[in-house]
Write a structure and sequence with these properties.
The complex is a heterodimer of chains A (173) and B (143). With 173 residues, chain A is an alpha+beta fold. Chain A is built from 4 helices and 5 strands. Chain A has a domain of 114 residues: Thiol Ester Dehydrase, Chain A, CATH 3.10.129. In chain A, strands 1-3-4-5-2 form a 5-stranded antiparallel sheet, covered by helices on one side. Chain B has 143 residues and is an alpha+beta fold. Chain B has a single domain, classed as Thiol Ester Dehydrase, Chain A (Roll). Chain B contains 3 helices and 5 strands. In chain B, strands 1-3-4-5-2 form a 5-stranded antiparallel sheet. The radius of gyration of chain B is 17 Å and the shape is elongated. The chains are: A alpha+beta (173), B alpha+beta (143). Chains A and B meet through helix 1, helix 4 and strand 2 of A and helix 1, helix 3 and strand 2 of B.
Chain lengths: 173, 143
C-alpha cells in the first residue's frame, strides 16, 4: 500500500505557501474546499430497488416491503430505508473523485464518517437530483480528511435529504 | 404510546452475515469494490480478510430502531421515523468465508423531547466483541 515518496511534488497542485511543510506529502488539493459540483442526472427511485435494498440491509419494515402497507400509512409507494440515500449520493462522490485537480487517490481513500439528515423519507417514484459541496478539507497526522455534503432534492426542487461523507485519504506511509 | 424512559435499551438484534450477504448488498447498493467479495484482492491491499461494506453495517444497525418506532404505532397508522442518522466507521467487520460474522446492535434511548415529539437513540454496534461503529446516533420523530 505504501507509495513512493513524492518529494513534495504530489500529483495535485499543492501550493507550498498554503500548506505546512510536513504536510506537503498529502496530495489532496486544499482549494477543493467550498467547491460545488454540477447536479447529477435525475435518479428515479424504483419500487423493486427499494425492496431489494431493504432486504439486503435486514429490514422487516412493511412500509419498505409492501406497497399496500406504505399506502395505508400515507405514502405514495414503498419507503426507502434510512441509508438508501447512499445510492443517490454515490454518483456525487464519483464526481468528486474524478475532479481532475482533486488529487484524491481512490486506492488511499477510507470512509471515515457518514450522516443522513432527512426532511422527508425517500419514496419509490421520487426523481432525485444530488448536488455535492465540499464543506471541508483538513489534514490530520499526515492524512487528509475531505468532508462533502450532497443535497438531494426531488423533481419539485424540494429538499429530501443531505448525505454527508468524510473521506480519509491516507498520506504516504 | 408506551411510556418512554431515557436510558432504556429499546432494541437489541444480532445479524448473521455471510459472503452472500455482502454480494447481495453489493448488488442492492451498486458498491462493487472487490475487497467486499474477493479474498485475494483484500489480502493484496493488506486487509485481514474480506470486509463487510461499512454502509451495510450502518444500514443493518438502524433497522432495530425502525422496527421499534413501528412497534410504538398501531398497524396502518404512520409510524415515527428516522430524521437523522450518523456513524463513524471505527473498525472493519471481517467476514470469514465459512463462519461469516455476527453484528450485534443495541439501541438505547439517549434523549427525549416530549414537547417536540423527538428523541435520540444511541447505538452500540459490535462484531467479534469489538465496537465497529462510533458515535452512532439516530434522531427520530415519534408519530
Amino acid at each position: 500500500m505504501a507509495r513512493g515518496p513524492t518529494g513534495g511534488a504530489g500529483p495535485g497542485p499543492v501550493a507550498p505557501s498554503a500548506v505546512p511543510p510536513r504536510l506537503v506529502a498529502v496530495p489532496v488539493n486544499p482549494d477543493l474546499q467550498g467547491r460545488v459540483l454540477p447536479p447529477t442526472p435525475p435518479y428515479l427511485v424504483g419500487r423493486e430497488k427499494v425492496r431489494e435494498f431493504a432486504r439486503a440491509t435486514g429490514s422487516t419494515s412493511p412500509l419498505s416491503l409492501d406497497p399496500e402497507a406504505a399506502r395505508a400509512a400515507g405514502h405514495a409507494d414503498v419507503v426507502a430505508p434510512p441509508t438508501f440515500a447512499i445510492v443517490v449520493q454515490e454518483a456525487t462522490l464519483a464526481q468528486l473523485l474524478a475532479e481532475p485537480d482533486a488529487g484524491i487517490d481512490f486506492s488511499l481513500v477510507v470512509h471515515g464518517d457518514q450522516r443522513f439528515s432527512y426532511t422527508r423519507p425517500i419514496v419509490a417514484g421520487d426523481e432525485l437530483t444530488a448536488t455535492l459541496t465540499v464543506t471541508s478539507v483538513k489534514t490530520l497526522g499526515g492524512n487528509a480528511m475531505v468532508t462533502a455534503a450532497s443535497d438531494v432534492v426531488d423533481q419539485a426542487g424540494e429538499h429530501v435529504v443531505t448525505a454527508t461523507s468524510t473521506l480519509v485519504v491516507r498520506g504516504d506511509s | 404510546m408506551t411510556a418512554l424512559e431515557v436510558g432504556a435499551v429499546v432494541a437489541e438484534t444480532t445479524y448473521a452475515l455471510d459472503r452472500g450477504s455482502l454480494v447481495r448488498y453489493a448488488g442492492a447498493s451498486g458498491d462493487f469494490n472487490p475487497i467486499h467479495y474477493r479474498d485475494d484482492v483484500a489480502a493484496s491491499v493488506g486487509l485481514p480478510g474480506v470486509l463487510a461494506h461499512g454502509m451495510l453495517t450502518m444500514g443493518l444497525a438502524v433497522q432495530p430502531v425502525v422496527a421499534w418506532l413501528e412497534s410504538l404505532t398501531e398497524p396502518g397508522r404512520p409510524p415515527g421515523r428516522v430524521t437523522d442518522y450518523q456513524v463513524r466507521f471505527t473498525r472493519p467487520v471481517v467476514v470469514d468465508p465459512e463462519a461469516g460474522a455476527e453484528v450485534v446492535v443495541s439501541a438505547k434511548l439517549a434523549q427525549l423531547d416530549d414537547e417536540a415529539g423527538t428523541g435520540r437513540v444511541d447505538l452500540t454496534v459490535t462484531a467479534a466483541g469489538q465496537t465497529v461503529l462510533g458515535k452512532a446516533q439516530v434522531r427520530v420523530a415519534f408519530a
